[in-house]
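Quick log. Single chain, no ligands specified.
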Amino acid sequence: MRAHALPSFGQFLLMMAIALTGCAAPQAASPTLLPPTPTSAPLMATRQMPGVPPVLLYDEWPSDGFPNDPAQMTITDLENNILTIKVVYSGGCRRDHTFELHAFTAFLLSGIPQGVLHLSHDAQGDICTAQIAEFLKFDLAPLNKERNDPSEHPLLLNLYEPIGGTFAAEPLSPQIEWP
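-> predicted structure:
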């Protein structure tokens, strides 16, 4: 009996070695989960952009709307007309997600003038569920040209994130003051 126990034990060890080796085999790279982390350091763009894309202005809401695949804005920063937004969204199968920032050219006038901005997100059909985080930058200079006298009043920016099928009912809080 003992003679059979050693080959069975040896076979067991061989099967375990094969199984463990299979687990350690290189697999296709999967997207890395980047948890949102608050930081006081200046935000840096993670996309390689030749330039910072401008905010896109609109006078009327387009009949077909803007792409609004879900994306959560977690951190914002404004410096020298450049708005940096950290977004977290689901994806991982495609790398060509498109983000644009759209601004209504008319300002809300309730005390301090307020601008309405919508972050659009087109996932290009990506249905994967990995959590992706990245920093986006947008140049607000085109919106500044719509203001009568930028030096007279700051502009409060109301940023709306896409929530899938529509945009959030409430803007990101707190509002961003743009001098």
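The first strand starts at residue 56 and ends at 58.
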